[in-house]
Each structure stands twice: as C-alpha cells, then as structure tokens.
Amino acid sequence: MKTKPTRAEPAKTQKPYNDAKRPRQRTTKTQKLVAPPSLSSISSSSNSSSTQQAPAPGAVEFRKLCVEKVRKKYAGLEPRCDFDLVQLSTKTYKGTHAEIYAALDEDLAMNVGSIGYEGVCEEATKLLDTCVEPTGIKPGKSAYFNDDKFVFVRPIPDSKYSLRLFPGSLSAAEYCLDFVDAAGKPVNSPFEFELWGVPDPDAPWLSIPAAGKLRSAEHTFGFKQKDILPGAEKFILRDGQTCVLMRPGKRPLRFTVPLRKVESDVVEDVDVVDLPRVVE
Fold first, then answer.
1. Per the record, which residues fall in region Disordered (predicted)?
2. Amino acid 115: pLDDT
3. 8 A C-beta contact, residue 150 and residue 135
4. DSSP 3-state of 124
5. What is the pLDDT of residue 205?
6. Would you list the domain boundaries of the chain?
7. How far is the C-alpha of 212 from the C-alpha of 232, rounded, in Å?
8. Which of 45, 89, 181, 279 could be cross-linked to 66 through a Cys-Cys bond (beta carbons 3.0 to 4.6 Å apart)?
C-alpha cells in the first residue's frame, strides 16, 4: 500500500513573516472565493445585480462570453435556443452533435418538469442578458479581456518560471496569480511551494485578515491536483494584498498585488486632510 510522504513544515527561519511585527491578537480567517460561472451561481448573482442602474466597470454581457466559449469548445455546433447556450457554456458535453443535442434535450426535460418550458426559457434569457464580472479568465482567453495594462509578469529567482498577475472582478477587488514558463505559457504548480497571505510589511498591525496559507481556486472548489486541466490553475488574491512565495531551500519571495484605481460617481461629503502616507 502506498502512503503519501509526510511533508515537512518550513523551518523557523523560513516563516513568511516576522514574528516581531505581527499583531499580538489575531484570528485566522480563510480567504473566501467566488465560485466560477455556472448556471446556479450566475443566476443568483444576476438577480442581485439586476437593480443596478449601470453595469459595473469591466462588466460584460454574459451572453457574449457564452457565445465565445461555445464556439471555441464545440466547433460547428449551434445552440438551438438560450437554454442550449447556457448549458453548453457551463457544462461539458461529449459525443457527436446529435448525441450532444440529445443530452441537451434530456436536461431541458428535467428542468421543464420543475418550472415549465416557458419558465426555463425565460430564466435562460434573463441570465444571458445580465452583465457579469468574471474572475479567473486568463490573458489571451477572451477577446473581451485582452488589456495587458493590468497584467504583470515577474521572474522568480533561481527558477525558469515567472509569476503572473492578471485582473479579475474590479468590484470585488480580485486579482489572479498563476505561473508561466519562459515562453509565457501557463503551467500548474511547477515546483514545490507554499503561497502565503501576510500582513502589510509597512503596517502589519493594521492588516486584516491574519497571515494564512493560500490555496488555488481549483483546490478550493474540490479539484485534486491531477484533475486540474493543464495551465488552468490560478490563485485568487485581492487588490493591495501582500503575499510571500515559500520554496524549500530558496529565499522567500514577497510581492504586493497592485491596487486598481476606481473612479466613483459618488461625491463624498467630506473634507480630506493632506498628510504624507510615509515619513522618512
């Protein structure tokens, strides 16, 4: 019987933070991530956002993303209705076109039995007509998210790989991290490492949440490492978050996620005092 080797904890000198700078009282809080687009998760979020007067910055009509995905995933297969479009973009179907259509008909029959045919069609159309801010779409994967202005690639010392930061939802202040090789191709966990979220080194006493080890979005959603599609792995961070990459036998690598400036239409009724943020 094979047993998994016990993983050694990082040496004391390899902690991703300085004990002397840590606040004395902290509670560990696991980072909460937003589920990837699916029929249920998008439907619930679209209902809450339907009262917005205007789409959030960076938001895209969900229909456009679905059409783009289906054309790439199922070459030559045309959705017959909005229900087909939602299903094809959020689930995986295999087989010939005829077999896929048959599977879609089975899914439709199951849904019709609960809310009726017209209800199914209305829900699908309502969902597709909403605007969404997806997190996790990698650079080059969508024509609707191809601005390199917010993409940052930095080499990892003593490694042939680089870390890449790319934007997610602006409203949720989410940024994504993955690893790329020398050709810029994304790879899954190319070496042994731990990624930690740590207090701001300039003001560790103000940092919330406390330091904690971060997991990839795929692991958070229950995927085993071997089941993650090649190059699909990603970590979801937050704007302004400070992180440390820990590797056995290597110096820790610390970085802070960029902050994206958001222009607000709301004018605050407040006077602002001009003070320096840092005093030498």
1. 1-55
2. 85
3. no
4. helix
5. 84
6. 39-46+56-132, 136-256
7. 23
8. 89
